[in-house]
Each structure stands twice: as structure tokens, then as C-alpha cells.
Amino acid sequence: MSQSEPEAKIFACSQSVYLAEKISAAYGIPLGKMTMSHYSDGEFQPSYEESIRGIRVFLVCSTFPTADNLMELLLMIDAAKRASARHITAVIPYFGWARQDRKDKPRVPIGAKLIAKMLETAGATRIMTMDLHADQIQGFFEKPVDHLFASTIFLPYIESLKLDNLMIASPDMGGSKRAYAYSKFLNSEVVICYKQRKAANVIATMELIGEVKGKNVVLVDDMIDTGGTLAKAADLMIEKGALSVRAICTHAILSGDAYEKIENSKLLELIVTDSIPLKKQSNKIKVVSCAPLFAEVMNMVQHNNSISGKFLM
What is the SS3 assignment for 154? Predict the structure, then answer.
């Protein structure tokens, strides 16, 4: 490779090695070597075990809990900067703290903005992520942000099902834009769930805006946390005459008793990406890998090619 186009290298934080290995295989280069030293009190220190001087490094790290994942990424960015990497691209398939994108009540932080500033201060020169909880988070960065959409891998899967009377659904009002984008591509109708919460992760009431009788419904959302919303929506839709209900969620957080809720719900299938590793297997959960998408876009970025063709939504 010429001096004007140095080779890129891919590294991963501890909890994202499973995904980074798939990304590097799809990219066509081996995963970079690094070690993570641990002190007895839990403090850790990353170390690159190969030269990264003057090249682009891609640091793969989903920042799901615990906060150690984010801290690892920040330390890896700082280490890369001090090792004279030319470009430092933080590849964050799941961007944690994205639900804190605004002040929704007094005396609370805007966590997503804080994380953006921390990443830039550490030395990241580019951010690559997928299906942010709120699009405006891109504006929290002063560096370029490649915001990928999982629709590029989910839409072919939906089409492969060849469902008659297909209907796209949003589990809440906030996801209606995403649902309409899917429906436009698939030429289908849309139904919206209107819900009211008693508290975070606790739904008081839910109603449907639209008719689902005789339809094969596909719920689309950016993440699934406790699973309560999707389970309740699926049960309500079957009650209202839907033939089947599936759900497509990019990020499988699946906290608390989410697996039990999914298993006991009327959901026929839950399709997710591997941006977050599953805690356990389930017959109802199908994983579609986002590794080929990230590998392709990373290759385009490295070779200064346009990535606009990767945006179906």
C-alpha cells in the first residue's frame, strides 16, 4: 500500500472482541494486538502491542453497561493519540447513554452530550455508530459522525419472509419516523402504539392508532431494554386480530426479566443485531450480524469513498 494510503488497523475493547473479530474478518485484515493490564483494585490500562504510528485505527467498542466499556474506549483513544495514530475512528455500534439526549425534567444531565465531549477530548477524530436513540446526538459532536442504519440489514430480512398483508408498527410515538421510513421502502401500512408511562420502564396504558386485524405486523425500534413495551404491544395486536407479530430491534439490551417477557409474549420472533452480545440464547431471538455493514463502511472511509449508498433511511 502506498505512503499516501496507509494500512488501517482494527482494535477492540474487551467486551466487543466478539464483534470486532467478525468485522476484521469481513474487512480482510487481522484484529490488532493489544493487552489490558489490570490492577488489584479494578483499574485497567490498555497497551497496543504493535506500531500504529501514522495510520488510521478503528477502535470497536459498544458502550453498554458497565461504564468500564466507555472507560476502556476513552483510554484506548488516548493511547492511540499518544502513539501518533494519524486518524482515530471510534466505532461504537451501540452508543450508550443515548437516552439522555435532552433535559426532560429539572436538574438532570444531558449524558449523550457529555459522552460526545469526552470522546472528542480523548482524541477521537471520527465517530461511527448505528441507530442512535435520537438523531440530534450527531450534532453534539464537532467531529464527523457516520450514523449507519440497521435498516440496510433488516429490510432484506423482512423481504425474505414474503409476508402477505404486511404492516409496519412503531411501539411508541417517538419511533413513528422510523416506522414510516420502513413502510415507504416496503410499500406497507403503518400502525402506531400510543403509551403512557407511570415511571421509566413501567407502562400504564397502551392503545393502537390504526387497524391490525388480518395483518402480519413487524414492530421496529432502535433498542429493546426490559421488553415490556414490545411484549405488551404484541399481546395487544394479537388481541385486536393481527395474524402474527414480529419485532425488529437494533440493540438487544435485554435487561432484568426481558428474556422471560419475550418468551411469554405473543411475539413470534425478535430480530436483533449483534451490537450488544446476548446474555443467553432464546428460540424466539434471531441475531443478524452488523459486522459486514461496519466492515464495508470502514473500508469506504479508509479509501475516501462515498458512503451515502449505505443509507436506506
Answer: helix
Tell me the Cα Rg of the chain: 20
Amino acid at 247: A
Separation of alpha carbons 68 and 52, rounded Å: 24
pLDDT on residue 1: 44
Residue extent(s) of CATH 3.40.50.2020 domains in the chain: 9-148, 151-289
Q: CA 270, CA 3: separation in Å to the nearest integer?
A: 46
309 pLDDT tier (thresholds 50, 70, 90): confident
Catalytic residue among 143, 195, 284, 310: 195
Strand order in the sheet with 126-130: 9-12, 56-60, 87-92, 126-130, 145-148
Rounded to 5 degrees, φ, ψ at 274 are: -100, 30
Q: Is residue 280 packed enough to be buried (19+ CB in 10 Å), middle (13-18) or exposed (0-12)?
A: exposed
Outline where DSSP puts E strands in the chain.
9-12, 34-38, 44-48, 56-60, 87-92, 126-130, 145-148, 166-170, 189-199, 202-209, 216-224, 244-252, 269-273, 285-288
pLDDT in tens, 29-48: 999 999 999 999 999 999 99
Q: Cell 431471538 maps to which residue?
A: 285
Highest CATH level, class, for 151-289:
alpha beta
Query: Is the pLDDT assigned to residue 196 strictly greater than 80?
Result: no
Question: pLDDT per residue over 202-251, tens digit each?
Answer: 666 788 999 999 999 999 999 999 999 999 999 999 999 999 999 999 99
What is d(CA 211, CA 313) in angstroms, rounded to the nearest whole number?
25
CATH number assigned to the domain with residue range 9-148, chosen from the 4 options 3.10.20.30, 3.40.1230.10, 3.40.190.10, 3.40.50.2020: 3.40.50.2020
Asked if 195 is an active-site residue, the reply is yes
pLDDT of residue 153: 94
